[in-house]
Amino acid sequence: MDNPADLKYTESHEWVRAESDGTLTIGITAHAQDALGELVYVELPEPGRALARGDAFAVVESTKAASDVYSPVDGEVVAVNDALGDTPQQVNESPFGDGWLIRIRPSDATQLDALLGADAYTAGPGAD
């Protein structure tokens, strides 16, 4: 699966999409969900939680392993993908779409500049 060019990426396999309202949608990459295998459980934070860049904010659990998901920027959780409670496999089926995890309001949007573009992610941490 190709990594969409309009997203930013982290070395720990999260993706970030800037939304028109200034919020950021965050999920895990196709590479990450493929490495984990079929997800059976997703634990998400409560809206209102403050995150610092690098904080673990979620746990994704598969039949193979459990893994933390880390915040790529500082901000406040404004929404979570509640549908994943009943259908965690959406992360596998649509990691860059319906499988998003959270939306945050960043406290410092310039932190996005430190993230990887699609080409850099694909050539580096996202290489198969």
Structure in words:
With 128 residues, the protein is an alpha+beta fold. The chain has one domain (8-107): Beta Barrel (OB fold (Dihydrolipoamide Acetyltransferase, E2P)). The chain contains 3 helices and 9 strands. The protein has helices at residues 30-36, 90-93, 118-123, and strands at 8-9, 14-18, 24-28, 39-43, 50-51, 56-62, 66-70, 75-80, 102-106. The strands form 2 sheets. It has a 6-stranded antiparallel β-sheet. It has a 3-stranded antiparallel β-sheet with strand order 4-6-7. The longest helix has 7 residues, at 30-36. It is globular. The mean pLDDT is 95.
List keywords for this structure.
128 residues; 13% helix; OB fold (Dihydrolipoamide Acetyltransferase, E2P); 6-stranded antiparallel beta sheet; 3-stranded antiparallel beta sheet; alpha+beta
